[in-house]
Amino acid sequence: MQKLQDDLAGRRDVRLVTFTVDPERDDADELRRYAETYGADPQRWLFLTGSETRIEALLKAFHQPTKADDKSGVRPHLPLLFVVNRKGEVVSYHQGLWDPQRDTEVEFRDNLRRLKKSVDKALQPDLPAWMPRDFPAFNAALNALATLLLLTGYVAIKLKQVRVHVACMLTTIAVSAVFLASYLFFHIVVKEWRPTRFADQAPDAPAWLATGYAVLLLSHTVLAVVATPMALASAYLGLRERWSAHVKLARWTFPIWLYVSVTGVAVYWMLYRLYPAP
Question: How far is residue 190's CA from residue 133's CA, in Å, rounded to a whole number?
Fold first, then answer.
């Protein structure tokens, strides 16, 4: 829980809640001392108690044992962490106790990855049915489609098929516009500006691969900014039939635009598919 408090610090509307199943012993002062021991932020990590009736009702809601042990008088409970969404629904549960004698560090880390992924899913706003359920995959598909259109348009102009070339290039601009809108919506609205880090997605990846991903992402991002005005200017010149200027600019625009589209798919593959979440 202490590690989760740090790992989930950047996520708004996330509260960690620890409640006692033994209210007679764990009064408010005892819970306060416990919270201070583990450096709990009172705004983000709550320690709760209540009446026997309310605690029993809560345990039933989580499908946990409610009867106290005959000898100790303490209710038994499984060491589980529950992820609850804004509607009060339990969306997942995870092992909350790491036993070094039984569990490896990799298993513990994978358990935390699954938990944090579940938290991120619970934080997502309710979206209309027509929106994609998996924005990263949808965006990667748009990049793949843009790549196919670019290559088709290139072949078409080499074969003197001007109308096919124009149709492909204008469609590519439309696809890229949809991608940009989808990308911004995902990161601003769905993820609330939270970055997706390669180290979090692929903790087992070697250092050289993480460096390669960083270089790929940087080049993709920088050239995407460059390619956008170049593509628009190239299309404008072509539609105005200013062929000489169009050809000169397109010779630079095409390889940059193609690189951005291809690396967009590569970034998705490295981030979400190379080391898939357990």
Answer: 11
In whole angstroms, give the CA distance from residue 179 to residue 130.
Answer: 16
Q: Please list the residues that pair with 94 across neighbouring strands.
A: 81
Query: Which among 173, 269, 273, 267 is positioned nearest to 221, based on CA atoms?
Result: 267
Amino acid at 148: L
Contact between 112 and 119 under an 8 Å Cβ cutoff? The reply is no
Which of 40-44, 70-74, 220-224 is predicted most confidently?
Answer: 220-224
* Local confidence band at 31 (pLDDT 50, 70, 90 cut-offs): very high
Indicate the SS3 state at residue 158. helix
pLDDT at 167 over 90: yes
Tokens 């259109």 belong to which residue?
Answer: 149
Instruction: List the beta bridge partners of residue 244.
Output: none
| Residue 140: Cβ within 10 Å count | 21
150 touches 254 (CB < 8 A): yes
DSSP lists the bridge partners of residue 172 as none
pLDDT tens sequence across 60-109:
888 877 777 666 666 666 678 999 998 888 989 888 887 777 777 778 88
Residue 153 burial (10 A CB sphere; 0-12, 13-18, 19+)? buried
Domain boundaries defined on the chain: 2-123, 135-273
**How far is the C-alpha of 58 from the C-alpha of 87, rounded, in Å?**
16
**What's the CA gap between 266 and 58, in Å, rounded?**
46
pTM value is 0.79
Separation CA 39–CA 45 (nearest Å): 9
Contact status, residue 122 vs residue 83, Cβ threshold 8 Å: yes
Report the chain's terminal Cα–Cα distance, integer Å: 20
* Apex 224 CA angle, 220 and 226, nearest 5: 125
